[in-house]
Every structure is written in C-alpha cells, then in structure tokens.
Design a protein that fits this description.
Layout (H helix, E strand, L loop, with lengths): L5 E6 L6 E6 L5 E5 H5 L7 H23 L6 E11 L4 E12 L5 H14 L1 H5 L4 E8 L1
Parallel strand pairs: 5-6
Antiparallel strand pairs: 1-2, 2-3, 4-5
C-alpha cells in the first residue's frame, strides 16, 4: 500500500510570512504567501493543490467507471474550483467541471456514471465534509 508524501515550510507570521510546498516525487515545488492564498497574489496555495488532486483523481475514477460499464472513454478533462471562505477559515465548496469524449453513450447514462465516480473517487471521500458539486458535459 503506497504512502504518498509532501512537505511544507512556513517562515514568519501569517500576513508577512512565506513558505514552500513540495511533493516528494519532485514533480512540484512552489512558493506560497498570505496574498497567494487569501487574495490574488502570485504563487500557489494549498487549495489549488487540493483542486489539482481532486481533478486528477476524479478524471481517473470517471474513466475507470466508464470502462467498467462497457464504454471506452477517449478523454476526460476536469477542472476543480475550490472555494475558501477566509472569514470562516474553511473550504466551503468544491465544484468539479468535467468534459468527456465517450463514444456510444447517452447523456443520462454518462451523468449517472459521472455522479458515481464523484462519490467513489478517493479524494472525494477524503473531502466528504465539503460540499462537492459536479457539472458533467459529454462531448
């Protein structure tokens, strides 16, 4: 059973400090600040990384569910919009927006499978305390 790892370091106080986040694989290392997290400052933030993880996991889960139902997806593209309410100090919503190219499937079946993938995705399960919505489009 693999254990994936990431590291973060924060220097200084919340408003004027800065930090770095890094994946053990070396595929990502980025800077973050108060402004990049709570405003529109330059740099990354934890919510952006959560969104990337969720979009990636959901895309794989949907592809797997489609395949398991006898459909062969050509592509699944997902964007995750993670809403951070800084006044509450919590992520209040994650909106998954996905587009898929899947031959020989009807819209209702596709949406049903997509909803199942949203519920079954390991990252969705980890974030279950958050309101997760799905907008699924069949191309």
């Amino acid at each position: 059973m693999p254990t994936k790892k990431a590291n973060a370091q924060w220097n200084g106080d919340l408003k004027s400090g800065n930090g770095t986040m890094e994946l053990e694989s070396g595929s990502y290392k980025g800077n973050y600040t108060f402004a990049s997290r709570f405003e529109n400052g330059k740099g990354s933030n934890p919510e952006e990384l959560i969104g990337a993880a969720h979009a990636g996991c959901f895309s794989m889960a949907l592809s797997n569910e489609l395949d398991g139902a006898g459909y062969e997806p050509k592509s699944v593209k997902t964007k995750a919009e993670v809403t951070l309410d800084s006044s509450k100090g919590e992520i209040t919503e994650i909106k998954l927006i996905t587009e898929a190219d899947v031959p020989d499937i009807d819209e209702d079946t596709f949406r049903e499978i997509a909803e199942g993938a949203k519920e079954g995705c390991p990252v969705s399960k980890a974030l279950a305390a958050t309101n997760i919505t799905l907008e699924a489009t069949l191309n």
